[in-house]
Structure formats: C-alpha cells, structure tokens
Amino acid sequence: MDEATQRIEQPAPAVSEPARRRRRLLRNILLGVAGVLLAAWLVLFLTKGRFLKHTAESLAGRALGRDVKVAGDFQLYFAPFKIRFVAEGLTVANPAWAERPQLFRADRVDALIAPWSMLFGRRRFYSLDLVNGAADLEYDKAHTANTWTFGTGKQGGKPFEFPRVDQASVAGTTVRFRDPRMPLTADLRIDPFRSADARIGRAIGVHGAGVVRTTPFTVEARLLSPDATVNRGQNQLALTAHAAGNVIDITGTLPTIADFEDVPLQVRARGRNMANLLDIIGVVIPNTRTYRLAAQLVKQGEIYRFTHLAGRFGDSDLAGRLTVTNGARVRLDSELATRSLDIVDAAPFIGYNPDIVATQGVQAAAAATGAGARRILPDAALPVKTMGAFDAGLHWTVGVVKSRHVPISDLDLTLALDRGRLALSPFTFTMARGHVASDVIFDTRQRPSADRYDIRLAPTPLGRLLAGYGVAEAGTSGTVRGRIQIEGRGDTVHQSLATGSGRIAFVLPTGTFWTRNVQLAELDIGTFVQKMFQHALKEPVRINCGLIGFTVRGGVAAADPILIDTQKNVILGRGGFSFKTEALDLALRADAKKFSLFSGQSPIGIGGDFAAPSLDVISPQLVGRAGVALGLALVAAPPAAILAFIDPGDAKAAACGPVLAGATAAQQRTIKGKARDDVGNGGTGKSESGKRSGGEKQEQRKKFLGIF
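Above: the chain's sequence. Below: its structure in token form.
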C-alpha cells in the first residue's frame, strides 16, 4: 500500500465540541428568527396589522415631514408575500404656507405592494384601488418650494415619485394645481377607470377648468395608455385647452403620469389673434389676423422651449423657435423667419388693427386707435405697465413684403425689450433696390415715453420706388437718398411725432427723368400740353441735384429747404406740415433758367392732410393761361402764344455742393456762390407767390397749418 492510499484510508479528525456548540447555536438562532418572523406574519395576518396604525402614522409623518392621519380602518400585513396596505380616511398635510391644509386625502386606499421595492429601487404597486382621492399641488409665492416635495434636509427635500402600478382602479379622484407666480389655478377631475394586466381597454379622461392670470380656460385630456405610463413609460397624452378664443392641442409620450420635464411634446395652437394667446401669460405682441401654429415643446424647470415652430398668421408664414423663461420675470427669446409677409399683417407693428386695415382701410384703422377724424397716425397707446413686467429678445427676418406700391424685401429686425425700454435696432430692409437702415426706441421708463426715430435711406432708384404710384421705371435714372431723425415724448406714435423735433432730408443726385413724369412738377404746363399733342413725352429731363429738407420743431415740419435744380428750371418750395394735426400746407414754384413759351408761374399748392392730400396743380391762373395758349397755338401764329406766357428765364442755378450735403436753407448758394434769397428758412410763415412781370420777386405772407 503506497503512501497516498494510506492517507485516504486514515479516519477524519473528530469535530471539536466548541465547534458543535457554535453550529447548534447558529441553527437555533435561525430557527428562532424564522419563528419570530412566522409569528409576526401570523399576528399581522390575523390582526391585519391594525395595531400598527399609530406607529405607521408617526413613522410616515417623520419621514415626510408632514402630519399623516388615518381616520378609519387601517391594515398593513403580508398577504402572503405581498404587502397589503389599506387606509380609510387617509390624509397627508400640506406645509403651513399652503392655501389648503391637505396635500392628499382619500376615502379609501387599497394597495398590494412589492416588499423589496420599499427598500430598493422604485416603489412598485401590484395593484391600487383609489376611491374619492384628492390632491392639492401648489407652489409658494417665491416659487422656491412646493407641496409635493417632502422634508427639508441638506438637499432641500425630495419630490414625490409616483410608484409603478400594474393594475389600478380609480374613482372620484380630483387634482388641484396652483402656481401663484403665473398666477395659475386649475381644478381637474379624473374619470373613473379600471385596468388589468397593464391594460385598461380605453383611455382615461381628465376634465377641468381654471384661470391663468385673469383668463379663464377649460381643458380636456386623455391618457391613452395610463398603465404603461406608470409602469413602462409609454403613455400617450392628448390634451386640448380653450382660452381667450384660442385652442391649444398638446400630444406626446410621458414617462410617468405626472412627469413633464424634458419630455418632447407636440403643440398646436390656433385662434383669431395671436396677441390674445400670449396675453394669457402677460406678454404683449402686436395684434395678428387668424393664426395657426405648430411646434415642439420641451419644459426644463422654468424654461419652456418651442422649437420647429411653423405656421401662418393672416396671409403670412412664420417659422423658427421661441423660448419662454417663467422666472422672477417672464422673458421671451425668439428667432423667427418669414418667407412672405403681407403688408396688412405688418400694420399692427405701428398700432393698426390688421382686420380693419384689410376691410376698411388705414384711416378707419387709425380711428379705431382713438385718432381724430381724417387722421392716419395711430393713437394706440403702448402697454407701459405690461412692457415693464417682462423682457424679450427677437431676431426676425423676412424675405419679401407683399405691398401694392413700394417693393420691400430682405427685412431684418432685432428687437430688445428690457424693463420697459423697447429698441428696434437695427431694423433694416431693401426698398425699391435701396437699403433702409433704422433705429427706433421707445423708452417707457421715462414718463411720458422718450422716443427716437433714426431712419436712413441709401441711394434708391426713383423709377422703381415710384412704380407703384403710376410712374414708369424705364427712362428714369435718378436716385434718392435721405435720413429722418426725430425725437419726441409720448406713449403713442402720434404723440411722439406731435412733440418731436429733428430733421428730415432727402437728396436727389444727378439723374434723368421722363418728361411726362417731371413736367407737371416743374409747372411747365404749357410745355406738357404741347408735347402731349406732339407725342414727345419720353424726352428725358436732367436733374442736376435736389434737396427736400424739413426742420421739425414741436411736431411741425418746415421746409428747410425744398430746392431742385433741373436742366431747365429751379424748383422752390415753402411751407410745411404738422404731425399734430396731420395738415399739409406747401407751395411749390418752378422758375425757368431760359426763355419758355409755355411756363406757368403760379405756385402749385399741396394741402389737405395725410389721409387725403390735395394737389392744386392747375390753379385758375394756369387754367386760363394754358387754355389761351393752347387755343392760340392752334389758331394763331406763334407770336400770339407768347402773349399768354412771358418768362425771361432768369432763374439762378443752384450750387449742388450744399444741396448734395443736405444742408439747410441758410447754407444754400447759387451756382456763382451767392446766398439764395428764394428758399424757405425753416419757418412756415411765408409762401412764395412767384415772379411778377419784369422779373421782380415778391413774397406773400400767409398763415400755414393754422398755428402761425
């Protein structure tokens, strides 16, 4: 027998007595624990754990930091391996600051709970039977605490986490939500339902009403697969709300029945006026016509992000993104783009109601804002109080503005609203192939509002600019550039301009124009009639330079100067207009540089008001002279026509340097460098009456605009 075999056959060493005692002790302990557990289970099962009622209330109250009470029957036991929990008249208190005393109450709660889920992971209910439950969810005024966050702790408490539920039966349950920051209050009722095997066979309905700020609303929602919601995060939400004439539809998939954070939701809104929609949350935008928009909404704390926004308002399209921050101050930030903007839809930006503009015209829209009769400047007041309650930032681009008269495109607007100071800067667009850049500010921090307009027009083709008014573009090479700078005080466009002071100047560099376009403006009526019969209306007329300037003081604009130097004439103008009354009172005269057979010298009058200007081109003197001259030209020799119009043609050509620099009347010179005495000096108290025989110039004083 070898050594290995001997080792195998040797008997095992005997177990020591101390080791046997330890084994027996461990076995007895295990049996004792099992016996205690069995006894406890048996006691709980037989008594249903009712004797634990006060202990459970105390433990739950300390864990939640709230009073927890059970007014009726209480059961807590294993049945057999699931925890059975029954509570009748269950209440969980709200914090002391809450408007209502109870966070949750129910006539009866009956649940089967997975034991290990109470210690590890997310709590799981195999079944839940809830009868006449009511939840009250509130934020505090500072928006730093809410009723569903329990305890205080270093982390500020822990929000309630809805358990996973496999089967549920719910009847008579309501939910109240209140957020004093908005402020928002909603009262919702959940339709009764019963589910089995994580399926309910029909949607859960939620109905209710509430108030956002001062706007009442109603809401209807459906949870299309609620058991999947609380169990596997597959719930389909479909919600429709009605408020202030708007309809809002929200659809999406929720991970839990009460979890909207970081969840993409599809939002659609439609109504008669988008301004009414945003007014619900205290945000003011210009009125719109009927709108329809769609976007994706994601909520992240106080931030609501609307992306992939697309839709229409009136006859215009809109796309982009919008962010609403519901913090201590509401703030809107948006990046928007429009391919085609109807000019009617742009009317609200200066205070007009677009529906009235579309159906009744600008004058009726102005009247609707409170403006007087025959006025077109809107008197719609800035919403000063609301503008100070929220902030905003906007960048908006527009491809084409659909307009009957002036072609506008490539609009680019940057808007900033900061505690009542509204700045449209920069605000640029292309008009008739010319570039317009502007900065407009309404500072409502000052009372009344301090307003500033600075509008700059780059060189723009006149033919293209005036094409919408019946002026042909072909044959016209003239351009115009200009600037408007006005500062005033007022809470409406009309008030700010009626108190404004500044300067308006439009400069005409050299260019050519059709004779038929400029002949009447030059008051060469006889030549116009003659050339009309000669079919020679396309002969070009050369503009050397021109300046149409006004000095604005206290809302009254006085010509300073109106001076246009053409190949044949010097056109002069005096008078002005008023932003206060919107009255026009201008006189224009053309002096010939050389002898002309048909040159009417009575001044042309531009009167009326902004809404209905009147043009007195053919004055009684000109009618007589043109009629006589035409008749003599037809039946008599040319010398007879000379009797009707005699003009030696001694007008002094303008020095174009000051004109092209946009200088005031005081800086204007003749081509020989002498100061001009035939242009207005920035006042509206005189009107040029024209030349009399022998070339003697006289002026006739008159009152303009009814204020001088």
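Residues 503-708 form one domain.
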